[in-house]
Design goal:
Ald_DH_CS_CYS; 15 helices; NAD; 2 domains; Ald_DH_CS_GLU; oxidoreductase activity, acting on the aldehyde or oxo group of donors, NAD or NADP as acceptor; seven-stranded mixed sheet; Aldehyde Dehydrogenase, Chain A, domain 1; binds 1,4-dihydronicotinamide adenine dinucleotide; binds the ligand O=C(O)/C=C/C=C(\O)C(=O)O; Aldehyde_DH_dom
Length: 495
């Protein structure tokens, strides 16, 4: 089956053909899974439905390639990362179209943010590899050399919301540190992972170093996590799945990183009314509805100081209603479709629940009226809900992971912190204030892995990325990724 996008004549991509990539070969499976384009709701590709035997083959290939890759100097590994980065950049326009087709998200997002970041993930880690991590500790009669050694075969399991962005965020440091890989992308968005395998093949990475298996979570992801020859699992996805992954991996003592969901809040103090109001409104619209709210960092709760609540609601709803929902390939579209029909139904069930909980829909809450072409697609309007109890409402405290935000008031900083910390998640929070002391005090009390002050999703790839409580375990990013994808090893030399 051929997808609707076109590659240039010298492209290494053949996107009509989605296969597993095992030991340097592209292989099919007997059974397949339909891959739907969310904008139209039609089948755009058929992908492998891998089972235990396919996972076994991929892990065996990764295990067999490991000794040689482990012994490959880090500078040579970094050179491969540079080549993969260059190939992604060369194919960027096509990759952006593929991602848009597979996810239903706007081309502005894939072409300006996601695909450039996928390339940057490789460049960043290639340049991060200095070898400076080696330390020595001298004794009177010996010297200790502490080095970083790779961990082994890494299972990398990624979700559907930022497919290539999040896959490359794991692949680049895992390769750099000398691990071999079996990757399992989401069955909902397999196309750019398939393209990445074709790119990796084209740059001549040794066979077996990178392997890719497509399939359902239970049939393919589960056997991969549980495989006895897998030493490390890096998972990004929902909290419920993260629990299953942890329950399998922990008793086998695998290294484990879990980047899970969130119920992030944006806290808006009245003092940002003075100088930063318009920027705050525009950024809060973005932090609520970027990728239709399907980013783990999106702020799905907005807490507003009482005295500026009315002004906030008026300006925020105006900003939300100005979003352009429609054809994802149009350059000025800001808001596309959701990932799947099941996800639309999940999000709609929360909107219904909000009504039952006494909430008021300020805007959205319905399927948009789009052209005939999109009648069967997976669409929902950006939705703003007020009037819910921020501590007890299910809609205001459970992860929805879609285009729905709830707005609440708070009295003072202590009240804001109390509401903020009343959910079981703790990924990333945002606060808006011109009072430096307040920013300092509140950010320290917010129980999250990350806080942004007067900004949002302002990324520096060196900083630790990850959450607390139900938002996950472990940190990735910069040296934290290198620490996760390697083990410290001490060698003591007696004089
Ligand atoms: N980045 C994030 O924070 C994400 C959060 N979510 C949240 O999770 C909810 C459910 O979404 P799903 O599509 O079910 O995501 P999921 O968490 O089940 O899927 C993520 C990845 O895990 C794999 N997987 C599923 N079951 C597995 C298992 N037993 N063992 C190993 N791998 C497994 C999937 O195939 C996919 O590759 C969403 O509605 C959203 O609330 C979903 C995706 C991303
Ligand atoms: O690294 C980033 O900039 C963003 C990461 C986003 C996720 O991990 C997510 O949405 O799951």
């Amino acid at each position: 089956m051929t997808t609707a996008t076109k590659c240039s004549s010298d492209s290494v991509l053949t996107d009509g053909d989605v296969r597993n990539y095992i030991n340097g070969n592209f292989v099919s499976t007997a059974d397949t899974i339909d891959d739907f384009g969310p904008a139209t709701g039609t089948v755009i590709a058929r992908i492998p439905r891998s089972q235990q035997a396919d996972v076994d083959n991929a892990v065996a290939a990764a295990k067999s390639a490991y000794p040689e890759w482990k012994a490959t100097p880090v500078a040579v590994r970094a050179e491969y990362l540079h080549k993969i980065c260059a190939a992604i950049q060369k194919e960027a326009a096509h990759l952006a179209e593929l991602e848009t087709l597979d996810c239903g998200k706007p081309i502005s997002l894939t072409s300006q943010v996601e695909i450039p970041r996928a390339a940057l993930n490789f460049k960043f880690f290639a340049e991060f590899a200095t070898g400076d991590e080696t330390q020595s500790h001298e004794m009177a009669d010996a010297v200790n050399i502490t080095q970083r050694a790779p961990v082994g075969v890494a299972a990398l399991i990624t979700p559907w919301n930022l497919p290539l962005y999040l896959l490359t965020w794991k692949v680049a440091p895992a390769l750099l540190c000398g691990n071999t890989i079996v990757a399992k992308p989401s069955e909902l968005t397999p196309l750019t992972a398939n393209a990445l395998a074709q790119i990796i093949h084209s740059v001549g990475l040794p066979a077996g170093v990178f392997n890719l298996v497509h399939g359902y979570g239970a049939e393919c992801g589960g056997p991969l996590v549980g495989h006895e020859d897998v030493s490390l699992v890096s998972f990004t996805g929902g909290t419920a799945t993260g629990k299953l992954v942890a329950a399998t991996a922990a008793p086998q003592f695998k290294k484990l990183s879990l980047e899970l969901g969130g119920k992030n809040a944006a806290i808006i103090f009245k003092d940002c009314e003075n100088d930063d109001w318009d920027n705050m409104i525009a950024t809060t619209v973005r932090s609520s509805f970027l990728n239709s709210g399907q980013v783990c960092l999106c702020c799905s709760r907005i807490l507003v100081e009482e005295s500026v609540y009315d002004r906030f609601v008026t300006d925020f709803v105006k900003g939300v209603e100005a979003l352009r929902i429609g054809r994802p390939l149009d350059k000025d579209t800001t808001t596309g479709a959701l990932s799947s029909r099941a996800h639309v139904e999940k999000v709609r069930s929360y909107i219904q629940l909000a009504k039952e909980e006494g909430g008021v829909i300020l805007t959205g809450g319905v399927i948009p009226d789009l052209k005939e072409e999109f009648a069967e697609g997976f669409w929902l309007k950006p939705t703003v809900i007020a009037g819910l109890d921020p501590r007890t409402s299910r809609v205001a405290t459970e992860e929805i992971f879609g285009p729905v935000v709830t707005i609440h008031t708070f009295k003072d900083a202590a009240d804001a912190v109390d509401i903020h910390n009343s959910v079981k998640y703790g990924l990333a929070g945002t606060l808006w204030t011109s009072n430096l002391k307040q920013a300092h005090a509140v950010s320290r009390q917010m129980h999250t892995g990350m806080v942004w002050v007067n900004t949002w999703l302002h990324r520096d790839l060196r900083v630790p990325f990850g959450g607390v409580m139900a938002s996950g375990v472990g940190r990735e990013g910069g040296k934290h990724s290198l620490e996760f994808f390697s083990e410290l090893k001490n060698i003591c030399f007696k004089y």
